[in-house]
DNA sequence: GCACTTTGGCAACAGCGTTGCTTAAGTGGA
DNA sequence: TCCACTTAAGCAACGCTGTTGCCAAAGTGC
C-alpha cells in the first residue's frame, strides 16, 4: 500500500510562512514594474489582509527592497500610496557558456541588464582554464556595482546536466566535462551561490518572467541543433534528471531519413535537411508539426521560436509553424488560440535567463531545487 | 516590464499553514499504510519539529483520522509509538461515466474500494436521465457506510472538459453534452462536492497514488482510441484547459495515412491500423515511438500502458514499447532506466482514480483547482 | 539495580496574520 | 468655508502557530 511520491521537508513553520508571503509580495511588486502597486492591490493579489500587507511591505522598505512611489488619484477618499520595487537593491550574474563564446550579464532585481561582457571561449580547453575565464567575468561584472550585494551566479550551458547537484553530464564533443561538478567548482572560485541549467531552460525562464503574456509555453530553439524549454504551471519543467526538453530527436517520420543521433525521422534532421536544401517552407512545416504535437500533448498557450536559424527568416518560421497549429485547431484538434512568436534578442536572453535562475527564488519562483 | 504570470491568492495565513502541515502528515500516514509511522519519522519527513508533529497528530487523533498502532522495537531507549491512518474514517465516491457503462466505487481514505457498482449506461440518453442514474449510484454506494462522512464525488468522463469549472465540452458523438455543467448539476442532485476530470487523468492519478514507485510518468490508454494521462512533479498535468494528454493525434509519420481526425500519420491511426491488420508488433512499435518521444520530451521515469487493446496482449505491447525506448536510450538518447508496465485491473482504476480526485486534496495533492 | 538512551508531553514563548479601532487624507455638497 | 462622507493605513490587542527548554516515561544493558 506504499507508493506515493515521498515529499521531503515540505513542512511550513512561521519563518517559512513569513518568507513565502514576502516573496509573494515581491513578485507582485516586480510584475508591477515602475508603475508600482498599492497595498490594497497587493492584498487582493495575495489573499492576505491589508494589514498583513502593510506589515510585510514595512519590512521590505526597511530592507531597502521597496519604496513609496507617489499616490494614486483619489477615488473619493484617501489616495492609495503606490509602492515600487527598488531594482538596484540587489543584483545577480548570468553566465552563458556556449561552445565558442561566453556571455556574462549583471542584472538587477527587475531583470534588467546593467552590464554585459562577451568573450570568445573554447569549451574544449581544460576545465581549469574555462573556469578561470568564467570566474573572471563574474568578478569584473560584480565590480560594476561594488557596494550592492550580488545574490549569486546562474550558469547556462548547452549539454545535458543535473540541475539539482550542478554536475555536467556530457557536452557533445567535449569529453573532459563528463561528470564535472561545475556548480561546486565555480561556487568555490567566486564565493557566490551558483545555479546551473540548460541553455534552453534559461531562455524559457527569461521568457516566462520578462516576456509578454503569462501561461504555459514552449520555447523552441533552432540553431545548430533543435531543443526546447518548457514552462508548465508557470515554472520551468526540468524532469527528474534535468533531461526534459529533448525535442530535436522526437520521431516525426517513422523510418524516415537517418539522423546523426542514430535514429530515423527525427524532427531536427528533417528540419535542418530542409533548411540545407533551401526549402525553408518545409523546414517551418516540420517544426510546426513538432510544435503542434507538443501543444496538444501539454495544452500550452503559446510557442516561442528562437535560435540563429529562426533568426535568419523569422517571418517564414512563424508563419509556417502557425499555419500547422491553426490547421490542426481548425479540424477540431488542440491549439485554438495558441500564439506563435519569436524570442528575439539573439543569444543574450540565455544569459539573462541564467541570471533569473538566481532571482527566481527571491520572487517565489522555482529556480534552484525544482 | 509587466509580464510574469499573475498568481492569485497564494498568500498563507495561520489556518492555511495549519491545514497544509496537517495534510502533509496525513499524506505520510497514508503512504505508510497499515505499517504505520512514528512521530519522529513524521518529523523527519515534514521538516517540522517532533513537538509540532505531536500537536498535529494529537488533533488528527481527536478527529478520528489517526490512531496509535503499537510500538516499534526499542533501539536502546523508549520505543517509538507507531501511528496509523484510520482508513474508514471518511469515504469518497468515484464515478466513471463511459460511452456504454457506468462504474461507481466507494473508496476509503486509503483508496481501497469498499463497494462497487456497475451498470449499463447510454451516454446518448437525455442528460437528465444520465444524471439520475449517476445520482442513484452515488446514493446507493453512500448507503454502504451510512454513518461515515462521504467527502465528495469524483467523476471521470471520456471527452474534453474543463476541470476547473466542471463543464463538459463535447463528447464525440453525443452533442447534447456540449457545454453541459455536469459538476454543478450533479452537486445539486447529490448534495456533495463534485470534481470532474478526463478518464485518462483519473487513471493516471490512481496510478500515481496507489501504484508502485513514485516519479513522473505517463499513462497511455489504448482502447477504441488512444489518450494519455501525465503525472509531472507528482501531480496530474492538465494544462490551462484540461486539454493535456492529447496523445493519439500526435503526428508520427509526416504525410502518412489519413486519420479520422482529418490529420495524417497520427499515432492512433497508425497503431490501430496495424492492430486491425493483425500486426501487433508494428502496433506496439508505433506506440513505443510515441512513448519514446514523450519520455524524451518530459524526462519521465516510467510508462504505464492500459486499455482494452493493450489488455488483449499485454506482453506484446510491453515488450514492443520497451524495445523502442531501450533502443533509443542505448544510442545515447533519453530513456535510460525507464520502466514500462501495464496498469491492469481493466476499467476499475478509472473509477478509483475518480474517487482520488476527491481524496487528493485531503493529502495535499492537487485534485481540485490545479 | 542503576546508569544511560530515547521518546514524547507540558509550559512558556516568539512571531505570524487577524481583528477592532483610530487617525490621516482625500472628495463633494451645502 | 465648513462639514459629512469615503477610503487608506497604522496601532494595539489577540488568537494561534510552531519552537524551545525542561521533565517524566519507558525501554536497554552492564
Automatic annotation (TrEMBL), chains A, B:
Q: Which family does it belong to?
A: Belongs to the ROK (NagC/XylR) family.
Q: Which PROSITE patterns match?
A: ROK (PS01125)
Cleaved signal peptide residues: none
Tell me the protein's name: Transcriptional regulator, ROK family
Transmembrane residue ranges:
none
What Pfam families is this protein classified in? HTH_24, ROK
Q: Which InterPro entries match?
A: ATPase_NBD, ROK, ROK_cs, WH-like_DNA-bd_sf, WH_DNA-bd_sf
**What species is given as this protein's source?**
Streptomyces globisporus
